[in-house]
Amino acid sequence: MPIDVADAIDNRLPAEAPVSGHEAAAIFCLPLPVCGDSSGLPVRRRRTAAITFSSANAAKKKNITLFDNFHQERIQPVNLTNEDRMRHMFVVGATGTGKSVFLSDMILQDVAKGHGVFVIDPHGDMVESVLSRIPKNRAEDVILFDVLEERPVGFNLLEWHTIEERDMIIDEMYQAVDLMYDMKEAGGPIFEHHFRNMLKMLCGDDIASRPNFSPTVLEFVRCYLEADMHEWLSARTAEADVKDFAKEIDRTNCGDIQLRARAKITSHFCISASAHLWLIPHSQKPRNSSLFLWVCSLG
Question: I need a labelling partner for 276 at 20 to 30 A (CA). Which of 16, 31, 74, 299 fits?
Answer without folding.
Answer: 299
